[in-house]
Predict the structure.
Amino acid sequence: MFENLRIGHYRIELEAGKQGLDLPPFYGSMLRGAFGGAFKQTACANPALRSCHGCTLKQNCPYSYVFETSPPAEAGRYRSYADIPRPFMFLPKLEDRGSYAPGECLTFALRLFGRGNDYLPYFVLAFIKMGERGLGAWRKPFRLVRVTGVNPLRLKQNY
């Protein structure tokens, strides 16, 4: 059933900017929200629309596929659903640390599923845009240092 499912495993490394970074204890949802805004700015051909519903470019838009994922026509029993799970997942480290001094690095894992793997370049551009816009309540900037592909047979914990 899942023999054709492609899963991409990546390690994302961000470097805190001159102001450092201050993150809440469970920063995954904040990360996803900031990423969503940056991804829309980067990949959407019609960012003025609040929703992809009714957009003529929806079928070929990276943003629509990644954030407003609809089941494919051949989805069988799932075709009646308006939405299906998104083709990506962030896996932040579960650590107590919330502050990063300037130059310190924050790392977390990214998983891409199925066609989501085709949009990796958009993910990279969105992380760069996100760093320019800043993260957290004070919009502190950071820099994307690297995105590393990880061999799934050598995964340790979330990485």
Remarks:
- The chain has a mean pLDDT of 87.
- Residues 7-42+85-154 form a domain with the Alpha-Beta Plaits fold (CATH 3.30.70.1890).
- The chain has three helices and six strands.
